[in-house]
Design brief:
The protein is α/β, with parallel strands linked by helices. Helix content is 54%, strand content 9%.
Length: 129
């Protein structure tokens, strides 16, 4: 499974035919894409109308959901602590996505380079063809 970050969803929705659109479409068709709560909220908040909101909600509802537990939040704190010891800081939202990916053995599909700083996170590489 691949947890899809907001940055990819935005490209998917706005730029038809983009690499992100084609790759996310491929992942969705194969049932390999996953969504987490914070990404769900971020994508929905970008709706331009109630009709678009409902369409997005229905589309995202069909995508497998990966939820967090209290232990996930401890993991987020641990990752943040480790990175801060190295002089690095990432937003808790991104660390939550990273923690969920690590806990479930999923990749992260993102356009944000800062995920590369999180030890052990596997980034999804789009197929070239």
């Amino acid at each position: 499974m691949v947890i899809v970050d907001t940055s990819v969803w935005v490209q998917f929705l706005r730029v038809k035919g983009s690499l992100e659109h084609l790759e996310l479409d491929r992942l969705l068709v194969r049932g390999q894409a996953a969504v987490v709560g914070v990404v769900l909220a971020e994508v929905l908040q970008g709706a331009r109308s109630q009709q678009e909101f409902e369409g997005l909600r229905q589309r995202l509802w069909a995508v497998p959901y990966v939820g967090e537990t209290r232990e996930t939040w401890v993991h987020v704190g641990s990752l943040s602590y480790q990175l801060r010891q190295q002089g690095l800081a990432l937003a808790p939202v991104d660390l939550l996505i990273a923690a969920l990916a690590l806990e479930h053995g999923h990749e992260v599909y993102t356009l944000d380079e800062h995920f590369q700083r999180v030890p052990g996170v596997k980034l999804h590489q789009p197929a070239t063809s």
